[in-house]
Task: structure prediction
Amino acid sequence: MDSLFPLDLHFGGIDRAIGVYVLDCPEGPMLFDCGPETTLPRLEEALRECDLELADIRHLLLSHIHFDHAGAAGALVRRHPELTVWVSEIGAPHLVDPSRLERSARRLYGESFDVLWGGLTPLPEANLRIAAGDVVGWDAFPTPGHASHHVSYLREGTLLAGDACGVRIEPARTIVPVSPPPDIDVELWHETIAEIERRAPERLALIHFGVETNVPDHLARLHEELDTWAARVHDGMTQDEFRAAGLADAGDDAEVYDRVAPYWQSWLGLQRYWQKRDASRAADPAA
Ligand SMILES: [Zn+2]
Result:
């Protein structure tokens, strides 16, 4: 197994917020997630620190299309047209035409959209492949919950987890089930965690941030935190109360967690989840 360590993109000037991975595949170097357009210069610098140029990368494997993971994908292909990009079937159309994604994100982020994410460059369909089954030697499988279109990749005990295993800024102990809108699904996320437990990886490559090796403990606590967060919102905590409770849980690490996985966003995501669920229950009590 090749060495496994995150390339710190120093997103927003913060250390250990977003870290992507460069690994070997049979055709040459590959990337797991690429960060947003705003950190593209830093990504190229980090690759050079590994004696690589952008043009050396053969494949980009994406976990999901949230900007902190995939925002730079289109811009990367524009600079390096030979790059093959793997993403789930649901995510693919939004990379080809990111206009709807950008519109809804601008509503959520307001003026900070440009500062955080820069932009979204459309990705030519010819460069895209659907991530399912064998992906350059990795086993790609759906890991919905954090997002409906999330996939993870497993090979030789290493799970390229993305956000399916939550956020944990290694070596901090706090794990947060980051739940941004629009399609967080608590039940599906529990099923995903159970599927990962069944596959029993030895290490989790987290984008936020680092490699976790005590996998059973991490996954058990992620189940618990997910239930705690979902209940807090369902029981009527306001956004401020939810954030205060999260900050208290995170202790000394509170500030970095609030910047990397903002509590206000997770409150909004869970709020929307419960509204949709309660509405569908009302329409069909057997659901
Ligand atoms: Zn995400």
User: Anything to note?
Assistant: Residues 64, 66, 69, 146-147, 163 surround zinc ion (CB under 6 Å). The mean pLDDT is 95.
